[in-house]
Specification:
It contains 11 helices and 12 strands. It is of the alpha/beta class. It has 2 domains: about 1-140 and about 280-315, Response regulator (Rossmann fold), CATH 3.40.50; about 145-255, Rossmann fold, CATH 3.40.50.2300. The strands form 3 sheets. It has a 6-stranded parallel sheet, with helices on both faces. A 4-stranded parallel sheet has the order 7-6-8-9, with helices on both faces. Strand 6, helix 6 and strand 7 form a beta-alpha-beta unit.
């Protein structure tokens, strides 16, 4: 019965997404329409790791798609390798008199400068790592609770609801807190699942390798490693393979990178699942900035403004559906 309900839920999600796409198309609020205007600033972290590289790829694709059909649009894209530079970048965009801004925060400490843009009347779209208060017109993110709930439930089931797990966290920020709290709350439903440790890997492969090396020295038995991030999982996997140990049964990352999807499709014994956290969320955020500034909304949406918060669903990926999520054109 649970399997049937799960399939019905997936069908419903697909139908809802198709309906949204139809609404967008029928309203003409896509890159196909040629009468949108505005100067759009886009600020995001530098591509220092795989996931952010994919995010940057989607930024370039979105800008190219919009410009191809809407030449009156102007896009200013800036990247930063630290929060101080990002704050300075946003200040510079304000000086250039942008009409709308999309911010993928380095972390929530850029809230003050985002608030400055918002209070100036600049249409503001924030995504992913969020801000400490609602200083935006639209916030869009992937479902961080669903993301780690799906992953933890899968790990528990694969272990037969009994085993020892370690966690490698991301950068301390609101979404990291949500993810870790959800992992712990979900695991707590199963007395046989023990979380041995949880330390930050800062969404970085090398730092995660070091964290995993420490875990391997500290704990004689580990059944599962959960990083909720494919880049960190690469570091954890490397440390495990170099250790010569053979006790770990599961490595679960997240974000559905090409490399990890390929492992799943190839039948890798350690990497058998993933959970979606689409990097194309930023492309949608750019579209929302264009729509919002041009005072457009969705057909069938009776309010005059776009939704304040948009949360994208998290989907479990296994060998049965990995090919559906594999994008050969995306960077890895």
């Amino acid at each position: 019965m649970k399997e049937k309900e799960k399939k019905m839920k997936k069908v419903l999600v697909i139908l809802l997404v198709m309906g949204l796409i139809f609404c967008l198309a029928s309203m003409g609020i896509s890159a196909e329409k040629a009468d949108y205007t505005g100067k759009i600033g886009i600020s995001l972290p530098t591509a220092t790791h795989g996931y952010m590289g994919r995010v940057n790829w989607w930024v370039q694709k979105a800008v190219k798609d919009w410009k191809a059909k809407n030449p009156a649009l102007e896009f200013l894209v800036v990247t930063a390798d630290n929060v101080t530079k990002q704050a300075a970048d946003i200040e510079d965009l304000l000086i250039k008199e942008i009409d709308a801004i999309v911010v993928f925060p380095f972390d929530a400490s850029v809230t003050a400068v985002i608030e400055k843009a918002y209070k100036k009347g600049i249409y503001t779209v924030v995504l992913d790592r969020g801000t400490t208060k609602p200083v935006y017109d639209v916030y869009i993110s992937n479902d961080d609770e669903g993301y780690t709930r799906e992953g933890t439930e899968w790990i528990a089931k694969e272990l037969g609801y009994k085993g020892k797990m370690v966690i490698i966290e991301g950068i301390p920020c609101p979404i990291n807190t949500t993810r870790i709290d959800t992992i712990k709350a979900t695991a707590a439903k199963y007395p046989g699942i023990e979380i041995l440790d949880s330390q930050p890997g800062f969404w970085n492969q090398e730092k995660s390798l070091a964290v995993m090396e420490n875990y391997l020295q500290k704990y004689p038995q580990i059944d599962a490693v959960y990083t909720a991030d494919d880049d960190m999982m690469k570091g954890a996997l490397q440390a495990y393979k170099e250790s010569g140990r053979s006790d770990i049964k599961i490595f679960l990352g997240g974000g559905a990178s090409k490399a990890m999807l390929q492992k799943i499709m190839d039948g890798d014994k350690l990497v058998r699942a993933n959970v979606t956290y689409p990097p194309d969320c930023i492309a949608t955020a750019i579209g929302l900035a264009v729509l919002g500034y041009n005072k457009q909304t969705f057909e069938g949406f009776y309010q005059k403004k776009l939704p304040l918060r948009i949360i994208l669903s998290a989907e479990l990926i296994t060998a049965e559906n990995a090919a559906d999520y594999y994008n050969p054109d995306e960077v890895d």
